[in-house]
Amino acid sequence: MKSFEKVTCLKKRRQMIMQARYRGSVPQELKMRLLREERAGRLDIILDEVAEASYKDSQIYLTLNHGSTVADRVLLATGFHATPPGIHWLNETIEKEHLQCATCGYPIISEKSLEWGKNLYVIGALSELVVGPVARNISGARRGAERIVSQLI
Fold first, then answer.
1. What residues contact residue 108 under an 8 Å CB cut-off, 6+ apart?
2. How does pLDDT run across 34-79, given as a tens digit for each residue?
3. Burial class of 116 by CB neighbour count within 10 A (0 to 12, 13 to 18, 19+)
4. Rounded to an integer, what distance in angstroms lies between the CA atom of residue 146 and that of residue 108?
């Protein structure tokens, strides 16, 4: 986190967040079990993004970015969208309150207090350009809460 905090360019911070998140993690035991199932032919592991979903004949079909279609069952899928959560309902507030956003769409907030507008504080994903890659987890919630509380006291 020290190296993240030294960077002041929001575009570079966004790149650091994406790199940290891209790696992801799976517990070693689970990874080995999944690979055994794949080798035994009982599991297909596909790393791709869903481009389109449709429903036909009581079946969900997922068309992936690389063109293949998955129809049977999806047991585990993970990921997130790169846009700020809740941005659709936030847009009206952003315009009305003249709130600033970085080019990636995330709030430009106070480094010290996580304040986005007068008496409007953010935490979680909306604070990640300041809090960093940990903003979405418990550690990030703690860090964010400490900043907000320290400014309110």
1. 10, 100, 101, 102, 116, 129
2. 999 999 999 888 888 888 888 888 888 888 888 888 877 776 666 6
3. buried
4. 18
